[in-house]
Design a protein that fits this description.
The chain has 178 residues and is mostly helical. It is 57% helix and 0% strand.
Length: 178
């Protein structure tokens, strides 16, 4: 695997569809890890302008997104801790809001564990139907996304939030780069 100057895997220039999608997803995951690396709790709590968004909140939100899409939706698993104990009706943004009470080590471990589970669950689905593998839990409208759709959606989720991470990290210590 070829790495860039920040240690992120470079998506393959050629490969089948699954290898290409997974390469881009791993690059986006590594971008978030890079933007959050080496920061203390204050750095992970920093905001930009009027926004309340933080890098710590991004880590926790993307940990939730990983579990939601690959464990809950794709495989139909019940919510795992800490998501199973959240009263989402009381705070629909609990993942974002509760991150300020977590240490950097807790946030990174939660996100890294979620990514590791997602990789394993993705490999399982690829072995059992490939990119056409249907999600076990349909959308609210009854439509059933494929693993292909879920991968594209999660890539988009990371890409969008990595843009936020660029601004947040630069405001903390001036680190820039794509």
């Amino acid at each position: 695997m070829e790495l860039d100057e920040q240690g992120r895997p470079i998506p393959p220039l050629s490969g089948d569809e699954a290898v290409t999608l997974l390469g881009f997803l791993d690059h986006q995951r590594a971008t978030l890890a890079w933007k959050c690396s080496g920061l203390d709790a204050a750095g992970l709590r920093s905001t930009v302008g009027a926004s309340t968004m933080t890098l710590g909140g991004l880590l926790k939100h993307l940990a939730f997104a990983e579990d939601w899409w690959f464990s809950r939706r794709l495989h139909g698993h019940a919510p795992a801790p800490p998501w199973n104990a959240v009263d989402w009706g009381a705070d629909v943004d609990w993942d974002w809001n509760s991150a300020a009470g977590d240490t950097p080590e807790q946030l990174l471990a939660l996100w890294q564990d979620s990514v590791a589970r997602s990789r394993s669950l993705t490999a399982e689905a690829l072995a059992d139907g490939g990119l056409e593998h249907p999600a076990r839990r349909p959308q609210s409208d009854g439509q059933v996304p494929s693993l292909r759709w879920i991968l594209c959606h999660v890539i988009e989720e990371y890409a969008r939030h990595n843009g936020h991470a660029d601004l947040l990290r630069e405001s903390v210590d001036g680190l820039t780069g794509s």
